[in-house]
Amino acid sequence: SQMAALAAVTGPQDCVAQMRDEFRSRRDLMVSGFQEMGVDLVVPDGAFYLFPRVGDGDEVAARLTKAGVIVVPGSAFGPGGKEHIRLSYAAARPQLEVALARMKDIL
Predict the structure, then answer these.
(1) Looking at the predicted structure, is the pLDDT value of residue 28 above 90?
(2) Which residues contact 85 (CB under 8 A, 6 or more apart)?
(3) How many CA atoms lie within 13 A of 72 on its CB side?
(4) Whole-number average pLDDT of the chain
(5) pLDDT of residue 1
(6) Does residue 53 sit in helix, strand or coil?
(7) Phi, psi of 59, rounded to the nearest 5 degrees
(8) Domains of the chain, first to last
(9) Burial (0-12, 13-18, 19+ Cβ within 10 Å), 21
(10) pLDDT tens-place string over residues 42-92
(11) Cα dihedral sign, 102-57-20-4
């Protein structure tokens, strides 16, 4: 496993740049979608999660789950998250587009 780790960090890195660009594109898609809905959020610099402010995060998470959009209520991350939900944009772009369309009906 150490040899594999060494190969990963010393070998060709072009695939890393491609994935970084793809995740940036997915992030921008989701951020734009939330902004169009008037939802407040901080644009993340890293990772692949968003933490938008949606009001009652527990209620919104339950409604989104019923609509087939999997999110985590922000309250799971402490009392400061109660007005938020957490979601990943690591899914395929078509799935993210469907999720945004479903969220527009709820948010």
Answers:
(1) yes
(2) 51, 52, 54, 57, 60, 61, 64, 71, 72, 73, 74
(3) 13
(4) 94
(5) 79
(6) strand
(7) -65, -45
(8) 23-106 (3.90.1150.10)
(9) exposed
(10) 999 988 999 999 999 999 999 999 999 999 999 999 999 999 999 999 999
(11) negative
Reported confidence tier of residue 11, pLDDT bands at 50, 70, 90: confident
* Res. 10 pLDDT band, cuts 50 70 90: confident
Q: Find where tokens 């949606």 sit.
A: 54
Dihedral Cα 14, 16, 19, 24, nearest 10 deg: -110
> For residues 100 and 69, what is the distance between their CA atoms, to the nearest angstrom?
9
- What does the block give as tokens for 78? 């402490």
Q: Which two tokens stand for residue 66?
A: 């019923």
- At position 26, the amino acid (one-letter code) is R
Query: Dihedral of CA 20/25/26/31: which sign?
Result: positive
